[in-house]
Amino acid sequence: MSMKQYEFWFVVGSQFLYGPEVLETVARRAAEMADWMNQSGKLPCKVVYKVTAKTQQEIADVVREANYQPVCAGIITWCHTFSPSKMWINGFVDLQKPYCHFATQYNREIPNEEIDMDFMNLNQAAHGDREHGFIAARLRMPRKVIAGYWQDEKVLRQLGDWMRAAVGVAFSRQLKVMRFGDNMREVAVTEGDKVEVQAKLGWQVNTWPVGTLVETMNAVTDVEIDELMNLYRASYDFATDDLETVRYQAREEIAMKKMLDKEGCMAFSNTFQDLYGMKQLPGLASQHLMALGYGYGGEGDWKVAAMTAILKAMSEGQTGGTAFMEDYTYHLVEGQEYSLGAHMLEVCPSVAAEKPRIEVHPLGIGDREPPARLVFEGHAGKAIVVSLIDMGGRLRLICQDIECVKPIMDMPNLPVARVMWRAMPDLTTGLTCWITAGGAHHTVLSYDVTAEQMRDWARMMDIEFVHITKDTTVEGLEHDLFLSDLAWKLK
Prior knowledge:
Elements: E1 7-13, H1 20-39, E2 46-53, H2 56-68, E3 72-79, H3 89-94, E4 99-103, H4 117-122, H5 125-138, E5 144-147, H6 153-173, E6 176-180, H7 194-201, E7 204-208, H8 210-218, H9 222-235, E8 237-238, H10 243-263, E9 267-269, H11 284-291, E10 295-297, H12 302-314, E11 322-333, E12 336-342, E13 357-360, E14 372-375, E15 381-390, E16 395-405, E17 419-423, H13 427-437, E18 442-446, H14 451-461, E19 464-468, H15 474-490
Parallel strand pairs: 1-2, 1-3, 3-4, 4-5, 6-7, 6-9, 8-13, 9-10, 16-19
Antiparallel strand pairs: 11-12, 11-18, 12-17, 13-14, 15-16, 15-18, 16-17
């Protein structure tokens, strides 16, 4: 499902104590608020007013329906009046979708001349939301609390960002990852417990033989390749006359996409140690598939493949870009400390500063023909890098704030896509923190998804979250990791 197809159900709390006239007003206002927020153009998904819940049964019914409706990506609640929170217990215990407590009120201001006891009885959000918030805290529910006036741009931005994280959860719950071959031999961080990941995050991670991919490649027609070559020409500059090599990449892409689509997979991994029957490691092929929204992981790294797909789903419709990434080398000149991120071939062109070029060069690894690939520089801007690791018994999501810059040198003999950035709080402190937390060498880099959204996603998924920011210190991080380790062992 695309971002626009998802809905978030608006469930408003009240009770019969106030009488039918008040309840009619509450329902009318709730519908008005949902319509206004939808028409504001500030939200990526639709808000659907479902019910003014007055009884335990109404709450249980709407939760049950939300759980079983794929179109519903989460529930947003608000208490216009006072809603006794014991009636919410059974529904909250059963809720399987992301939950946002929207602490707002219908009126922006207190009306000095109009305020009386009738007004106070009707407009009790300040009262009702506190009662409502207690029960979620008491039940230890993972939740997002957004407070503020429902027409304010800042509030709508917060709500929209949370929606994107919740869509990431919905996407994750149905994600299938296709592994072409196994992990790169002896690499530790690409390992992980696939059973635990499926139970926790929903991912179905399975392997398909490279031989099956080769069979599918052999069945690709020249007409299919010609069509994709036309798309390449429209999207990229050709900086090579070796069209047969580019056509071979098109053949690989078409075959991989056929297999992915047939199995309903939105992410894939491969490794240069298993290219049986293939002439080239997929470079351009993998890059263009990522541009279409598929996630990718090199060296058999299925975790980063899945996370790339999830962040792409969360950032649908945004233009900054999201890409599979790897820290390759550092520039350690004092006062000019930068990381250079790249990979052998496979960086998504969504992060390019200018139109990417198709080039053909020897790879120097994998013992195959020189592959075609997209070469470009990433654009400047604030971004994050994200790594999901298996700590044995729990998953840890590590997120670091970075500032991408135009590369400070041309690197004319480096024929790969690359991004250069300043790590927060600085390169060496950030590197020490990343290694201390166990961050992988493969990451997802995104200009669109924020650290707050990744925190929300981790909270919804009930996994550990570590954030390295401009204010992080090594000592502080070590202390936080120690406490986190104790807390997660008790869960």
